[in-house]
Structure formats: C-alpha cells, structure tokens
Specification:
The protein is of the alpha+beta class. It is built from three helices and six strands; from the N terminus they run E-H-E-E-E-E-H-E-H. It has helices at 13-16, 60-68, 99-104; strands spanning 5-6, 22-28, 38-39, 43-48, 51-56, 77-82. The strands form two sheets. The protein has a four-stranded antiparallel β-sheet, with helices on one face. Strands 1-3 form a two-stranded parallel ribbon. A hairpin with a 2-residue loop joins strand 4 (43-48) and strand 5 (51-56). The longest helix has 9 residues, at 60-68. The relative contact order is 0.25. The model is unreliable at 8-16 (pLDDT under 50).
Length: 106
C-alpha cells in the first residue's frame, strides 16, 4: 500500500448496516498528493500508484466524492463499479502482486 493511502472499515452507520459491498475500480492522478493518508472507505488493494480495487458499502457517487474531497481540487479521478464475480473482474498484468488473491478473498 502506498504511504499516502490507507484502507479502513469505517463508514457511516446508516450506510454500512445491512448493505453489501460493491467492487469499484478507482483511479486518481498519482501526482495528486492528499494532505493525509487517503481513506478508501472500504477494503482496498492497490493495482498501481493511484489505481485501486475497492470493496465499499458506499454508492459510486459517495465513494467518488469522499475520495475526491481528500485530493487537491484539480486532481483527476475516476470511479467505476465492477461486477464482483470472476466473470466481472478486470483482467490485468504487471500490477501490484496479490490483486487476484485479494479479489478471491484469500
């Protein structure tokens, strides 16, 4: 995990109760340095600098905005939901080790 990013299990109580997590692919400009470690608002695994797979109970809009608010105002960012089963997982090569094991929950 990058020094400027952290994963947490913390979400608001109303968002976390009884809701399942969604798998997201989140990217932010790696040159955009947040003031504090980035709170991923879920469980995350880095694929590359600024590129993450994140399982979060937040909606796409809420996750996008919570990541965006931690970055400088001009930082580029993207947040896309993925189907969280093997048929919907992204294919990747040359990324950080352990990504496929993380997806499988190992």
């Amino acid at each position: 995990m990058a020094a400027d990013e952290t994963q947490t299990d913390e979400t608001e109580t109303d968002e976390a109760q009884g809701e399942t997590s969604t798998l997201y692919l989140v990217w932010h400009d790696p040159a955009a340095t947040p003031d504090a470690p980035l709170d991923l608002h879920g469980h995350g695994h880095p694929l590359a600098e600024g590129l993450w797979l994140i399982r979060s109970p937040l909606t796409r809009s809420k996750l996008y905005h919570r990541i965006k608010w931690q970055l400088p105002d001009d930082a580029a960012i993207a947040c896309a939901p993925l189907e969280d089963d093997p048929a919907g997982w992204p294919k990747f090569k040359g990324m950080e080790s352990g990504a496929l094991a993380w997806l499988k929950g190992k």
